[in-house]
Amino acid sequence: MSWGLEIVKAVGLTIAVFTFLAVVAAMLGVLLERKIGGWIQSRLGPKHVGPQGLLQTVADTIKLLQKEHIAPRAADTAIFNTAPLIVAVAGLLDWIVIPFGPNLIVRDLNIGVVFFAAMASLTVVGILVGGFASNNKYSLLGGLRSASQMISYELPLATALIAVAMQAGTLSTLGIVNAQAQRGWFVFLQFPAFVIFLIAATAEVNRVPFDLPEAESELVAGYFSEYTGMRFALFQLGEYAEMFAMAAMATTLFLGGWRGPILPPVIWFLLKMYLIVFLLMWTRWTFPRLRLDQLLNLSWKLLLPAGLIWILITGFFITFF
Amino acid sequence: MLLLDWLYVGVFAVVGLGMAALPMAIVWALAPRVAHAQKRLTYESGVVPFGQAWAQFNVRYYLFGLIFVIFDVEVIYLYPWAIVFQRLGKFAFVEMLIFLTILLIGLAYAWRKGALEWA
């Protein structure tokens, strides 16, 4: 084990994961969102660019790469420019602990699940920085509201993760998938934790019904009002990467990760991940938006006490049975 | 091996930052740059912006942040307990029951005092 070789491996893996994210999460994910949204609304999504509209996001990306970079004169240029990078990197770092197959994980950190929650929190920093640096009332308020929403939902997310860790006896994601081999999928054993996780994950990525911070009808575009062109695309890349990471973590923790009968493990993992992504997109196009005080109440007064009480119930059943 | 784990995380962060900055570099190379004063005005739905942008904002945001910090520290205490409590038996469970009850009472207090209202 030489350090040089490991560094080369790490660089290669980063490039591979980033490319995977850019293609699957950003390009296919955005296209999927538009197509599914179209079908739910009884219309077709994009269909002209490429076969069945598959090259739509490629065309969008090429267009965005040629847009002029405009920054408001009053904005704080240094941190204005770094905020999208923070959000994109936070979305990328989450993928270190996601297992695609029996040994297909970048690095099986022994605190995998805690690391995942921590990287999800980094997005809050990027959003606050972006909102503040824009020197725009809409951006500032949007950033603050988004930050307070995201930190409020960190806690129920953490309680769901703790309940699963209690059931599996380990914080490592590989260990949790292996524990599901013996005891059955945790979606059955820990169904309340699954529900709490999905709701908290939807709120963590600022999706409807929790997308008030970026609601077009409310705050223009919230914290990214002043961001144009590729910077806007980087924010979106970070958010979509985060959404796919949450879906991947939900399959790892609750749906048995890569386990399944006939097909290769990676195919099962991707199938399950896309199932959860479809669920998230389905709720986006179905439900109306919650008001900010409604969604904060949901987190602090319902999900957090429910999560803590579920931890106690899980502990009770594991200790006494 | 722990150091190796975190080497991977470090490399990921640095190379990821570089790869995220790559589109920026492409934009810098490809995009036009036509200077025009109106382009750099702050956006305010079409009107001329007035007042300070970095205005005062409500203290509610700070309250939520504060309560979040308290419960986040509690959650950090729960993570190691979650792994080892199976081996420690009934005593660990009762102890955590007491800890969580105290914190749930704290949450109820904050609720009653109105710290969780609005935002």
What keywords describe this structure?
heterodimer; A: mainly alpha; B: 119 residues; mainly alpha; Methane Monooxygenase Hydroxylase, Chain G, domain 1
Quick structural gist:
The complex is a heterodimer of chains A (321) and B (119). Chain A is mostly helical and 321 residues long. Chain A contains eleven helices and no strands.
Number of domains of chain B: 1
How many individual helices of chain B? 3
Named CATH topology of chain B: Methane Monooxygenase Hydroxylase, Chain G, domain 1
Query: For the largest interface in this structure, which chains are involved and how many residues does each contribute?
Result: A-B, 85 and 68 residues
Largest sheet of chain A: none
CATH class descriptor name of chain B: Mainly Alpha
Blueprint (SSEs and pairs):
The complex is a heterodimer of chains A (321) and B (119).
Chain A: H1 3-40, H2 56-65, H3 77-93, H4 112-133, H5 137-168, H6 173-183, H7 186-189, H8 191-204, H9 229-254, H10 265-286, H11 292-320
Helix pairs in contact in A: 1-9, 1-10, 3-4, 3-9, 4-5, 5-6, 5-8, 5-11, 8-9, 8-11, 9-10
Chain B: H1 2-30, H2 60-88, H3 90-113
Helix pairs in contact in B: 2-3
